Amino acid sequence: MVDRVYLDWNATAPPSPEAVEAVARAMREEWGNASSLHEEGRRASAAAEGARQILADWTRSRAIEWILTSGGTESIHAAVLGCARARGGRRRLVISAGEHSCTLGVARILEEEGWEVVRVGLRADGTWDPDEVLEACDPSTTALASLIWANNETGAVSDAPAVATELRRRRVPLHLDAVQCFGRIPVDLSSLPAAMVSLSAHKFGAPKGIGALFVRQGTPWTRWMQGGNQERSRRGGTVNGPGAAGMAIAATLASRWDWTEALQARDELERLILASIPRARIVAADAARLPNTSCVVVPGADSATLLDRLDARGFAVASGSACTTGIAEPSHVLVAMGIPDHEAHATLRISMGPTTRREDLRRFLPVLVQETSLVRSRSTNSFPPQ
């Protein structure tokens, strides 16, 4: 049995034992329908309300402003479609070229309905430019802006506060995809005037299938999913009480995470990678970044092949390409940053968590160096012409 090291926290965090136990306890004791008026229903409703209150305390907001969802994708779709359909004649959506695929997907839905979608570019450091966002947000035509705050591939953190205040002044609602932020950087909604914020709880140790959407009171927004009157008539669908119980525990634990050691370990790993692997470089190195994320270009080493070899050696990492129907396409995020296709196909994402040990990274480095050398040596086109 290989002693595995998990370095793909941006895809999902390992569920915390405490959250797993909270889910199991809720399934035993709080399994009722939260919409029911009897004791069993009240217990389930209390679990959901407790989760909303913990999110509110964590972000300095109000529990009534949080809607429980099935995860990040639903939260993002609900935010964009709900606001878009509440904004009357305004039919412009502003996003960035570095959005998660679910935001790009909902943008295509609106384009097919005749909307104008403005995609602001990414700078070389992986962040979007606040000035470009504001230039695109004409108050007379823009229904909303939906922007990724911290990029899931590069870890680059864009300057959300720089646009949030001005967009609020212009009365253009701002939705932030903050899925990668919770537990990693402060999310203080008392000082950050975003209209909507999306969250996916499995990114910080809760079970999959539970998330939340913050909708600030007064934001023009209407429910996007019909079929029920749950969540104060803002969402249809039976409330996931056990998931909410797990999210509540995971959020409490994540709010206490200390990233100091992990940040130091990440920076040390990056220094050693640059010193040990010729021509390697760190993507978004000049940007503010999540403390747990390293995106590394290793020219001449196909990332899919390298990922498979590392996996066989016991190390779980991610690549810079997304496979669709068997065809590997370079990451749209890396391409938007100006990274050539051959380098985008030679990129690894290493993402850590608070339980990642320096010993794990010290074991990882020589294996990465060895496997990179082997993959390069077997490539017929290791170093494309300059």
Give an overview in words.
Mean pLDDT is 91; it is low at 382-386. With 386 residues, the protein is α/β, with parallel strands linked by helices. Helix 2 (39-59) packs parallel to helix 8 (241-254), helix 3 (72-84) runs parallel beside helix 4 (101-112) and helix 10 crosses helix 13. It starts with a strand and ends in an 8-residue tail after the last helix. The longest helix has 21 residues, at 39-59. It is built from 13 helices and 15 strands. The protein has helices at 17-29, 39-59, 72-84, 101-112, 130-136, 160-170, 230-233, 241-254, 260-276, 303-312, 332-336, 341-344, 358-378, and strands at 5-6, 66-69, 92-96, 116-120, 142-148, 174-177, 196-200, 211-215, 281-282, 293-297, 315-316, 318-319, 321-324, 327-330, 347-351. 39% of the residues lie in helices and 16% in strands. Helix 6 (160-170) links the parallel strand 5 (142-148) and strand 6. It has 2 domains: 17-254, 3-Layer(aba) Sandwich (Aspartate Aminotransferase, domain 2); 258-378, Aspartate Aminotransferase, domain 1, CATH 3.90.1150.10.
Task: Give a brief outline of the structure.
This protein is of the alpha/beta class. It folds into two domains: 17-254, Type I PLP-dependent aspartate aminotransferase-like (Major domain) (Aspartate Aminotransferase, domain 2); 258-378, Aspartate Aminotransferase, domain 1, CATH 3.90.1150.10. It contains 13 helices and 15 strands.
Describe the SSE topology.
Layout (H helix, E strand, L loop, with lengths): L4 E2 L10 H13 L9 H21 L6 E4 L2 H13 L7 E5 L4 H12 L3 E5 L9 H7 L5 E7 L11 H11 L3 E4 L18 E5 L10 E5 L14 H4 L7 H14 L5 H17 L4 E2 L10 E5 L5 H10 L2 E2 L1 E2 L1 E4 L2 E4 L1 H5 L4 H4 L2 E5 L6 H21 L8
Helix pairs in contact: 1-8, 2-8, 3-4, 5-6, 9-13, 10-13
